[in-house]
Design brief:
The protein is an alpha/beta fold and 153 residues long. The chain folds into 2 domains: 81 residues, no CATH class; 72 residues, Signal recognition particle alu RNA binding heterodimer, srp9/1. It is built from 4 helices and 8 strands, in the order E-H-E-E-E-H-E-H-E-E-E-H. It is elongated and about 60 Å long. The mean pLDDT is 90.
Length: 153
């Protein structure tokens, strides 16, 4: 059996800020979404013709008409939606550390970095507009090469 991340869902009262963050930070794009009885959008990593590419499911909360969402997914206290709630973070593998760091800096997104030498992993942690922590994992060799490049400059 092979397991891989299918998607993660974010409930939000600010769909626009959430869309802008994920499009800019991760390079995903808005694509097709089934006609659920509540607002939302699916953000795709790759082709929009493969539903498996819908990496981020944004669940919009319509404060004026919350019934569709309540009936479909259940009710949640708005105060519980800040931060990651019961989920600590969402982790994704990536390559291209130098380009991603430059891109995130250009966007003004604050990044926390760590290297886990025992498993050869360099990690970036960033927060989406809803306070959900996103972890981007890179081969530690990319960080070593980047540090060497900076030392030579």
């Amino acid at each position: 059996m092979t397991l891989a991340l299918n998607h993660f869902s974010i409930r939000t009262t600010d769909m626009e800020a959430t869309r802008v963050f994920y499009e800019a930070a991760l390079g995903v794009t808005v694509g097709p979404r089934p006609p659920f009885p509540f607002p939302g959008m699916w953000l795709y990593n790759g082709s929009h013709d493969q539903v498996a590419n819908a990496l981020v499911h944004v669940i919009g909360i319509d404060l004026n008409d919350p019934e569709g969402l309540k009936q479909y997914l259940g009710d949640r206290d708005l105060s519980s939606l800040k931060g990651s709630g019961a989920v600590d973070h969402i982790a994704l593998f990536d390559t291209g550390l130098e380009a991603k760091l430059a891109h995130l800096a250009k966007l003004g997104i604050v990044v926390r970095e760590r290297t886990v030498p025992a498993i050869g992993l360099h990690q970036l942690f960033l927060d989406d507009p809803n306070g959900v922590v996103i972890e981007l994992n890179y081969p530690a060799q990319e960080k070593t090469a980047l540090d060497a490049k900076k030392a030579q400059a």
